[in-house]
Design brief:
With 231 residues, the protein is α+β, with helices and mostly antiparallel strands. The chain has nine helices and four strands, in the order E-H-E-E-H-E-H-H-H-H-H-H-H. The chain starts with 13 loop residues before the first strand and ends in a 7-residue tail after the last helix.
Length: 231
C-alpha cells in the first residue's frame, strides 16, 4: 500500500473515480476527451498499468486499473494523468487553480462476479447519469472498443472477460447479454458505497483478505525501509 494510505493491492483491478472541483466541467470539447485518452495510453506504457475499463464524463472519470506488481504505479499514474489534464485545461482556457476535487477515490475489486459488475458499472455511467441514451451511442467509454466498434486504443484483456467465450464474437455476445440485464440498484449501491469509503469491492471474505494483505505490505515495507542517517 503506497504512502498515500489508499488500499492498493498489486495484481488486482481497482475502480478509480475522480471528479471536477465542485462539479465543474472537466472535458469541454472532443479534443479534451482525446487528449485524456492519449495521456492514458502513454502512461499505461510508461508505468505498466493495465486498463480494463474506462468512462469519461463531462465532469468525472471512472477507470478500472491494475497497478501490476508495484502498487505505487497506480498513484503515480493518476498523479501524472491529473497533472497533464490540469495543465491542458489551464493552457486552453487561460485559467489557473484546481481542476479536480481533492483526492481521487480508489477501491480494489474482487475478481470474478465483482470484476464484471465493476466493468458494467463503469461502462454504463453515461447512461446512468443521463449523458447518453444507450451505452453503444456514447463515444467516451471502453464499451465501443470492447465491442469491436472502435479501433483498439488502451483496453487490456482480463481473464474474467476472456472466460465469457472462446472467440471475440462469443465474448462480445455474452457481454451484450450482461449489459442488457443492466445493473441492479443494490449492486451499484454496493460499488458506490465501497468507492466512497475507499474500501474493497467484493464479498466479506475478500474485504477481510484485502485489508490483511495491505497491512502486511505496509509492515514489510516499514521493516525494509533504510533508516535515515543522523547528521
Amino acid at each position: 500500500m503506497p504512502r498515500s494510505g489508499r488500499l492498493i493491492l498489486p495484481g488486482y483491478p481497482h475502480h478509480v473515480m475522480q471528479q471536477g472541483f465542485r462539479g465543474q466541467t472537466v472535458f469541454h470539447t472532443d479534443g479534451d476527451f482525446r487528449k485524456y485518452l492519449r495521456d492514458m495510453r502513454e502512461l499505461r506504457e510508461e508505468l505498466g498499468v493495465r486498463i480494463y475499463a474506462w468512462c469519461l464524463l463531462s465532469n468525472q472519470v471512472h477507470l478500472l486499473l491494475d497497478p501490476g506488481s508495484d502498487p505505487e504505479a497506480l498513484p503515480e499514474f493518476m498523479k501524472a494523468l491529473s497533472l497533464r489534464t490540469t495543465r491542458h485545461r489551464n493552457r486552453r482556457r487561460q485559467q489557473n487553480g484546481s481542476l479536480w476535487e481533492g483526492r481521487y477515490r480508489s477501491s480494489p475489486v474482487q475478481t470474478g462476479y465483482w470484476f464484471l459488475a465493476a466493468v458494467r458499472g463503469i461502462e454504463l455511467q453515461a447512461v446512468m447519469l443521463g449523458e447518453a441514451v444507450h451505452v453503444g451511442s456514447y463515444r467516451w467509454s471502453s464499451y465501443r472498443e470492447r465491442m469491436g466498434r472502435a479501433e483498439p486504443y488502451c483496453l487490456d484483456p482480463h481473464a474474467d472477460y476472456l472466460a465469457l467465450g472462446r472467440t471475440d464474437e462469443e465474448r462480445r455476445e455474452s457481454y451484450r447479454l450482461l449489459m442488457r440485464q443492466g445493473q441492479s440498484e443494490q449492486e451499484w449501491r454496493h460499488i458506490e458505497l465501497a468507492l466512497r469509503r475507499s474500501q474493497p469491492i467484493g464479498d466479506d471474505m475478500f474485504t477481510q483478505s484485502a485489508i490483511s494483505k495491505a497491512s502486511k505490505t505496509v509492515t514489510s515495507r516499514n521493516r525494509t525501509r533504510p533508516r535515515s542517517r543522523k547528521s
